[in-house]
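[job 0412] stage=complex_fold ligand=magnesium ion status=START
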Amino acid sequence: MVGYAVEKVREQNPLVHNITNVVVTNFTANGLLALGASPVMAYAKEEVADMAKIASALVLNIGTLTEEVVEAMMIAGKSANENGVPVIFDPVGVGATAYRTETAKQIVREVKISVIRGNVAEIANTIGEAWTIKGVDAGSGTGDVVALAKKAANLLQTVVVITGKEDVITDGKRVHIVKNGHPMLTNVTGTGCLLTSVVGAFVAVEEDTVVGATEALAYYGVAAERAVARTDNRGVGTFQIEFLNQLHHVTSEIVREHAIVEKGE
Ligand code: ATP
Ligand code: TZP
Ligand code: MG
Ligand code: MG
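[job 0412] stage=complex_fold status=DONE, emitting structure tokens
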């Protein structure tokens, strides 16, 4: 089902315009470069419309939002929409504070989003469902994640990606479950944020957004598994560096060999 898109990203070298948070900026740029995409971060309201227009994907990430950044996101999002550029949204920490929740709701209301990617609590709170969240990390709530993802996809009319031990990708009809990845990813800040930008790079080169997002998730999970295997549990610092190496080394062939992707309902 997957393992055909990594080289497409490397050949097309899509420009990914990120309006992201101050924690993950460098890691996101390096991760996109390791994949073979072309990252740019641009935040000034005077230039975001122009940058979004020439990008192959726009990523909006509200991890460290301020009023100025939110204004820039709206301008960039509208420019992307007018120019047929896919917009990928990471609702970091939604549910933790009223400001985040309101901003996320404003973004999905005013910008047409191609993919929203978050942990289960972030997606739930974006559509007004109660789900405990601890800062930017998923809380310990339980529930039917596939049903929640489909509900969000139908309500927001977008592809929804909910990540965790298993990742759910859905447009409200088709459901893909990706079982790759490793708990070490939760020990490195920004692995979720970088993933959202990686989804942007794959969606930029794949016509079918569900397929593009699934390709991205499988590639990312396989890279993490290989990084753990090659660092022999030496620690999170070593893992972080080897993960970047593997984002560079993993090919479609490797993804085909190791991806665990199932269809859900
Ligand atoms: P959180 O802040 O709750 O950690 P996040 O935005 O950082 O959320 P994650 O859900 O951690 O994003 O997803 C980032 C990557 O980590 C995804 O590829 C996901 O599959 C992987 N991942 C997360 N938890 C696990 C786990 N327990 N086992 C395997 N892979 C995981
Ligand atoms: N605080 C605000 S944004 C951020 C932190 C720690 C990074 C969150 O990154 P991720 O990828 O969601 O773990
Ligand atoms: Mg995380
Ligand atoms: Mg996150």
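The longest strand covers residues 15-19.
[job 0412] exit 0
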